[in-house]
Amino acid sequence: MNTYSRLPVTFTRGEGVWLWDRDGRRYLDALGGIAVCGLGHAHPAVTQALCEQAASLVHTSNLYGIAHQQALAARLVELSGMQRVFFGNSGAEANEAAIKLARLYGHRQGVAAPEIVVMEGSFHGRTLATLSATGNQKIQAGFEPLVGGFVRVPYDDGNALEAVAASHPDVVAVLVEPVLGEGGVVVPAADYLNRVRAICDANGWLMMLDEIQTGMCRTGRWFAFQHNGIQPDVMTLAKALGNGFPIGACLAGGPAAEVFQPGKHGSTFGGNPLACRVGAAVLDVYERQQLERRAEWLGEQMLDGLRQQLGASAGVRDIRGKGLMLGIELERPCSELMARALEHGLLINVTAERSIRLLPALITSDTEAAQIVDAVTALVRDFLGRSSTSSAGNADAGR
User: Fold this and answer.
1) Domains and CATH numbers, the chain
2) What does pTM read for this prediction?
């Protein structure tokens, strides 16, 4: 179906941070499948796990014990400090599980119509419930009536969140991204998540973090909440957990840990032996190479480089990031830069109309990172130069 305006390229193979198209042309991938391929393309450990498990056992269903699922859940619990894990096949499914868990939690607290606080500018998925939770009217348009039960407040605004407690007595949870991804790589104040945690504690709400894009070492910690020294009640993961193989997870702890009971939620394919074997292989590499440290250090280097080269440029509104989650916000829409970058052998993304989003693999070398910074700098300068010339020409024509 015609659901994507695709760029004019088809890739046939990949290796590390590089991709090749049907004509044999090579491209530097600074997007990583939208934060999915944290280990780059065709990583040998992932390939080996896929092949070995596919030759052994792919699927039995969750009616039976699944050893690889239990092993992966135990490792995620240890890394995160959570207590329980539900596996699905995507980030949207993980967030659906979190939303259902919050509603069930609310009903058990005697709340007849539980509400969840969500943020403006957020993105949580494209199923009907996660679409309704998302703070983007453009992608919601045409799918009304949306699912009710969501209260929306500005992102990175603790005062607005506190005000909800007085006006919405049926709120039972807050769902928030530690860094807005689709919303333009917006990094909140350093203590924002701490304040969210405190407000949730004061009101008996569940703190639910969508770490689908920020999790798996992307921001310089295994999970972004670990920068703040707090513990959420619910956390969702996907994307990089499978390095391209579909897998999602909803983790719960504290008062949320035992909310789900048999019959309350399920998945036909979620947590199958193949997906969980791949997830374990991904964790092996991340742990062995200490990629959280690599992401933090390399992200700082790239952010400094971008700020040095573009920070003083007219037309650049902000350059921000956390770990290897980087954004360059311009003063005008710049979606055309994705096609321009492709012409120069580079894969980038533009989100929220004005923000260039860079999500390179965590295995990116120093040299490759410098190439990305230099290439993006050249693209932005050229784009701003053309825009400035065009604006001056239009002004002259109007005199």
Assistant:
1) 11-30+301-397 (3.90.1150.10), 44-289 (3.40.640.10)
2) 0.96
